[in-house]
Amino acid sequence: MSEIAGTSSGVRPIAHTTNDATDAEVAHEAYAFACMKCGHGWEQSYDIEHHVDAEGRAFVIYFTDGMRVRSPLTSPNCHNCGADLVRIMRSGQVSTALRSLGGEPRRRARRADAEASDATPAPGAPPARRGHHWHLSDLLHPFQSRK
Q1: I need a surface site. Which of 1, 11, 19, 57 has the fewest CB within 10 A?
Q2: 17-21, 39-43, 101-105, 131-135: which has the highest mean pLDDT?
Q3: Are 34 and 40 in contact (CB under 8 A)?
Q4: Phi, psi torsion values for 48, nearest 5 degrees
Q5: For the whole prediction, is pTM greater than 0.70?
């Protein structure tokens, strides 16, 4: 995407600034990631410094939270399970999917489930419904047995 000169990724930098220390042009980009093994999804924003080496070749350096990181476009790994089968998408995909499913962060959901399980249901009340829970890997199982 940003690493390949002369090609368009469809991702447009949010803003361009200049790093005063190196006079490098800095672009801000964000990506969404989904692990195809465990189903974990996350989003990350990057500050990307564009440089030119002594031979005139362009290269970029990625930063997250002020720390240098390797390019997320070459071989990202899942933050949850460490798998390298990760899909890269435009930013906003993970948060949009969570909102459409009515999802909330798992910590809050677990806390709410624990509080609900402590309460005894009223006599004659229908059983409490639990939220639908699935992982992307569950959907891929039928395709893994094909050869």
Answers
A1: 57
A2: 39-43
A3: yes
A4: -115, 115
A5: no
The pLDDT, as a whole number, for residue 115 is 54
- Give residue limits of the domains in the chain: 24-104
* Residues listed for the chain: 147
- Whether the per-residue pLDDT at 40 is higher than 70: the answer is yes
CA-nearest of 46, 81, 86, 113 to 94 is 86
**Cα–Cα distance between 96 and 82 in angstroms, integer?**
24
pLDDT-derived band at 81, boundaries 50, 70, 90: very high
Distance (Å, rounded) from C-alpha 38 to C-alpha 79?
Answer: 10
Map residue 16 onto helix, strand or coil: strand
The answer to whether 87 and 68 have CB atoms below 8 angstroms apart is: no
* Contact of 128 with 116, CB cutoff 8 Å: yes
